[in-house]
Amino acid sequence: MPIMFAGPRTKIERANTHIKELQREISVFLARNPYHVGCHPDMESGMDQLCAVVEELIPERIWAPIIGDVVHNARSALDLLANDLVPASRRGEATFPIWKARDINGNAPTIKGVSEVHQNLIANLQPYVTGDFTLRQLHELDIEDKHRLLIPVAAVSVVQNLSVRRLPNTEPIPFGPRELDASILGIQNLGFSWHSTSRNRYRPTEDFEFDFKLVFGNANPFAGVEILPKLHSLVDAASKVIDDFDAQAI
Q1: What percent of the chain has pLDDT over 70?
Q2: Residue partners of 199: CB distance under 8 A and separation at least 6
Q3: Which of 36, 80, 82, 211 allows an S-S link to 8, with CB 3.0 to 4.6 Å?
Q4: Is residue 157 within 8 Å of 213, Cβ to Cβ?
């Protein structure tokens, strides 16, 4: 038995493949230890400072096209679905409508040539009906990607489990989480300073870790939104639409 809506489902699979590709890219980047914590002298104050060092910025020009591929495959899955619903004479012309609201005459979106059952389903899946605008976000991001790269940025990365110890063997002094602007190359003070003397030396303990988050850049309508969870939600929303039409066909 042939798979129902095989073309749209292939696009969804491809979108998920690109998400896994991006996850691997992030893992490889973090494996290079682009951030570390160390002690650095401040020449002006004569104090030593506990600092985070950003050694490497994210490869945004490599990651941005992957993000765009996820979005485009998820959106085009819905257009392929629309073409599966129309008569053969209209295939290649249909697009799946995703409206924020009814038109000025109060009409719901339609796809010419689809059955009444499918027309009702299209109308009921619209964001202004469901109250869930994830599909509209997918539509808008796909348009955005056609005009500019969906540039990712490394968000503020949180340094967890941070503590320092005065040498040789005193108890560590714990810190709360410290935020690091991971989009800036260089050294950033983490808020602990001390006079550097041979009898008063501090060093960070080795149990700290960085909480890395990738977000959309400021030029994007979703600036500051974490990318990987958003990509998963966009693809899942498109996949659910296909499932809804599949259920109607049974």
Answers
A1: 95
A2: none
A3: 80
A4: yes
Q: How many helices (H) and strands (E) does the chain have?
A: 6, 11
Q: Which residues of 118-151 are buried (b: 16+ CB within 10 A; e: fewer)?
A: bbebbbebbbeeeeebbbbbbbbbbebbeeebbb
Amino acid identity of 212?
F
- In this structure, is residue 114 part of a structural domain? yes
Long-range contacts of 34-40 (CB under 8 A, 24+ apart): 35/157, 35/180, 35/182, 35/210, 35/212, 37/159, 37/162, 37/190, 37/204, 37/208, 38/204, 39/202, 39/203, 39/204, 40/187
Q: What is the pLDDT of residues 83-113, one digit of tens each?
A: 999 988 777 789 999 999 998 888 888 899 9
**Does residue 1 sit within a domain?**
no
Residue 110 lies in domain = 6-249
Structure tokens at 25: 């890219």
As for how many domains the chain has, the answer is 1
Lowest mean pLDDT among 1-5, 59-63, 167-171, 216-220: 1-5
Tell me whether residue 21 is exposed, middle or buried, using C-beta atoms within 10 angstroms of its C-beta: 0 to 12, 13 to 18, 19 or more. middle
